[in-house]
Amino acid sequence: MEQGEAPPSAAGEKGGEEEDDFGYRLFPDRNKKPQSFLVRSLFTFHNRCQLMLRMTLDTNPYAQLLLEAMKQSGCTVFNDRHFSCEDCDGCVSGGFDSATSQIVLCQNNIRHQSHMNRVVTHELIHAFDHCRAHVDWFKNVKHLACSEIRAANLSGDCTLMNEISRFKFGLKGHHQTCVRDRAIRSILAVRKVSKETAEKAVDEVFDACFNDLEPFGRIPHSKTDAKRAYKDFQNRDRYNANL
C-alpha cells in the first residue's frame, strides 16, 4: 500500500465488533447521509477530486485498459455510480467497497494528478479481481494478499521513479521486494492481524499472484509500457472477435 493508498478495506459486511471493522474506520463518510450536490459543489476538495478523476479515466492508459477489461468481463464501470470522492481518516487515499462495488477516493488526501492516477489504477485492479473471481475479502487473508500483490505489481506503485521519490533504492529483485512490502503494509492497514500473519499470507501466494498479469499481459513499469499493454489488449480483443 502506498502511503495513503488503501486496499479493498471498505468492502463487504461490517463486523459487529470493533476489532472486526475491516478498515471502515478509515472511511467515515461511508455511513453518512450523502450531501446534496449544491453542498458538495462548494467544497474545493470535492471539485478537485472529480476533475482529477475525469482526467485519469480519460487519459491514463493504466485506467483505460482496466476499464476496457472490466467491460469485457461484464462489469462495466460508470463514473457517477462506481466512484465516490469522500473525506477519509488518517493518510489513506482510496479503497474498494465490495458491498457497493464502489471505489472510494479520499479527496482530502489526493493532492496531485499522478497520485490520483495510481490510486484509481490500484483500486480498479481490486475491482477487476472482484469481477472475475470469487474473492473472499474478509475471511480469507490469502485472497486479500493476492489482490494486494497484483495491485502493487501492476498499478505503477513500485516503478523506479516512485521508489526513488520514497528514497528507496535497490538493484536486482527490488521490484519484487517493493511489491511484497507494500502488499504486507496494505493488509496491516485494514486488518487487525499480526505482521507475521500478513507476511505468511503474502509469501504463500506471492509467486502465483505476482505472475498473474491479467489484464495487462506484462508488468507496466511506465506509462509507455501501459500504453503498449493497452494497445495489445485492444488488438487481442479484435483478434478474438474474428475467430
Describe the structure.
α2 (44-59) packs across α3 and α5 (113-132) packs across α6. The protein has helices at 37-41, 44-59, 61-72, 79-82, 113-132, 141-154, 160-165, 174-190, 195-210, 223-241, and strands at 83-86, 94-97, 102-106. Helix content is 53%, strand content 5%. It folds into two domains: 23-134, Zincin-like (2-Layer Sandwich), CATH 3.30.2010; 135-214, no CATH class. It is globular and about 40 Å long. It is mainly α and 243 residues long. The protein has a three-stranded mixed sheet with strand order 1-3-2. Residues 6-19 have low confidence and may be disordered. The longest helix is centred in the middle third of the chain and has 20 residues, at 113-132. The chain starts with 36 loop residues before the first helix and ends with a helix. It contains ten helices and three strands.
Order of helical and strand elements: HHHHEEEHHHHHH
Tell me the strand order in the biggest sheet.
Answer: 1-3-2
Largest sheet: 3 strands, mixed
Q: Do you know the CATH topology of the largest domain? A: Zincin-like
Keywords:
single chain, 243 residues, mainly alpha, Zincin-like, 2 domains, 3-stranded mixed sheet, 10 helices, 53% helix, globular, metal-binding, hydrolase, metalloendopeptidase activity, Peptidase_M76_ATP23
